[in-house]
Amino acid sequence: MSHFETLLPIRDSLVQLRPLAHRDADRYAEGTRDGDVLRYAHLPLSEYTAEIVRQLVDTVVAEGLREGTLLVLTIADAVTDEFLGSVVLFDVREDRAEVGFWLAPWARGRGVAGRALDLVSGLARTAGLTALEARTLPENAASRRLLERGGFTCGGEPAESVTPDGELRATLHYDQRLDA
């Protein structure tokens, strides 16, 4: 069991973060078909069905959580447990990890992403990480604003990087110090 497992779920008055579960499969798959998610999330698979999500929950998601190397978390409503999106800690190393996130269209405009980002930063700090990294496309103004409001600092001009979907793209790189 990883240290992360013992810290989950976490919540505030608006959202909770918990491991992706079978009960999220239909809404997760539905959310990944949204145009903005397709354009900006750079998910590893080109298509998600509920069955694929359930298989991932039982394999990659469970293994990553157990080993503390990959956290695929559901952003859920704190009261109703409705699936709202996903936040992922990946490329987890001794002192840092990269964070990625996306919201389903029905969750946007309610402050959910900012709250989820704050919660995952707190989780990473409690787990002993000292920094988080994030990348986004320069044209993703909403993500850039969210990262900056969440205490991330942009590292300068766009640079080529391989995104989680395996594509080489010009991305902006952000860092957040957790030990400050």
Provide structural commentary.
Helix content is 33%, strand content 29%. With 180 residues, the protein is an alpha+beta fold. The protein has a single domain, classed as Aminopeptidase (3-Layer(aba) Sandwich). β3 and β4 (83-90) form a beta hairpin. α2 (25-31) packs across α4 (50-67). It is globular, with a radius of gyration of 15 Å. InterPro entries: Acyl_CoA_acyltransferase, GNAT_dom, N-acetyltransferase.
CATH superfamily: Gcn5-related N-acetyltransferase (GNAT)
Number of domains: 1
CATH topology: Aminopeptidase
**SS content category:** alpha+beta
- Largest sheet composition: 9 strands, mixed
Query: If helices are DSSP runs of H or I spanning 4 or more residues, what is the number of helices?
Result: 6
The average pLDDT value, as a whole number, equals 95
Assigned CATH architecture: 3-Layer(aba) Sandwich
Spatial gap, N to C terminus = 28 Å
What order do the helices and strands follow? HEEHHHEEEHEHEEE
Task: Please tally the β strands and state the result.
Answer: 9
Gross geometry: globular
- Roughly what fraction of the amino acids lie in strands? 25-35%
Rg, alpha carbons: 15 Å
Q: Ranges with pLDDT <50 over ≥5 residues? A: none
CATH class category label: Alpha Beta
Proportion in helices: 25-40%
